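Q: How would the C-alpha cells look for this protein?
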Amino acid sequence: MSTPVRTALISTAGHCKVACGFCFRADRAHGFLDTATYTRTLSRLKETGVEGVCLTGGEPTHHPELPQLVRLANQFGMSVSMVTSARTAAESLALSQVAHLLANVTVSADSQGAMLIGRTTRTAASGISTLRAISTETKILHITCWNLTDGECQDLADLVAAAGVEVQFSPVVLDERTLSRDGKSVQDYLAQQQLDADLLDRHFNLSDRYRAYLGELRALQLPGAGGERWSCRSATAYVSADGHIRRCPYGRASVSAHAPRSEIRQFLTSAPQDQVTPDCAAICRTAATSDNRSTTCPAPV
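A: Here is the predicted structure in C-alpha cell form.
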C-alpha cells in the first residue's frame, strides 16, 4: 500500500556555499527553482493532498524571490517550513523577512567532530544566534553529530536551554568511500555513532524512537548481519531545483512538474518502488522512528 504524500521537501537552489564534506544531497547544480515551475508544482501537490512544504536548498535564503515562494505556498493553504544554514548578514536578513510567515525554522549546525570531517564552520552557537534573530514561533537547532565529548554536550545543553529553542540530532552518515579514505571500518563508524548517542542521552534524554532510528541505520549499513532493505514508506515527496518530483531525493523515478495532472497524480499515489538506503534514511525519518524533537522538515541541510 502506498503511503499518502502529505508534505514536500522543495530544493529551491541547486547549489550551496557551505559544501559539507558529508553532505547527503542527492542532486547538485547551479541555478534556482524558477517561480513559474514552483507555482505549478504547488498546484499539483495541493491537488494530491499535500498540506505543507519545507523549503531547503542548497541554501534557500539565496533564492532571489524567497518571499514570493513563501507567500505562494501560503496562498495555496499550505504551511511552510524551512531548513537553512543561514549565518551571514545577507542570509539572516533574507530569513528575517519571511520568518513570521513560517511554521518553523530549522537551522543546521555541526558538532566539533562533524565540522572537522565536513570542513564546515556551522557552530551551534552561530546557529542559535540566527534563531534568536527571527520571529518564527517554533525554532529548531539541528546538530549533525560525530565524535562528541562530554564537555561539548554539556556546553550544547546550556546553549539550548538559555536560548529556549528545540534541538534535533542526526549522526554523520559516511559512505564506504569516505570511510576507506579515512581508514575507518563500518564497525568503527557504527561504534562511534553509539558512543555519541550515549553521550547525548546523558544530557538530552534521547527518545526510544531516536534509538530505533539508529538501529535502522545500522541494519542498512550491515545488510549481511541480518538487516534487510525495505521499500520507501515516506509521506514526504521531493522536488528538485529543476522541477522534477520524486518520492525520494535518491529515487530514480520522477515526474516533471510540467507533466499532465493525471500523470503527476498517478506518480504520487502509486506505491513507491525505491528501496531505502542509508543516505535517504538519514534524511527522512519515518514517523515510527523519528525523534520526539522532529519537525515537519524531514531533511536537514
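The first helix runs from residue 35 to 47.

Strands lie at 7-11, 52-56, 79-84, 104-110, 138-145, 166-171, 236-239, 244-246, 255-256.

Upvote if useful.
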